[in-house]
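Aim 2 progress update. The chain analyzed this quarter is reproduced below.
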Amino acid sequence: MKEVEANEQHKSIIGALKAAAPEWEFEQINFVVGNRGSVLKIDFYSKLEKLDVQEGKKRQALCRSCDTDMRSAP
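Predicted structure tokens:
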């Protein structure tokens, strides 16, 4: 899965940040996109919520980031 790949790829960076500033909390949020319809809308929106993106801006981000139809969660 691409999410796991992305986490593994940036593992050392997150580790270095945690070591440099142990009083801070770090979380990696991956926006993995691929073929038409491969991104789950609910996943995309939940990641935008973690970044505290306002509701109206979420729709704009969705339109700008993907020139594709996103499928709903099953």
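The mean pLDDT is 76. The chain is about 55% helix and 0% strand. These observations will guide the mutagenesis experiments scheduled for the next reporting period.
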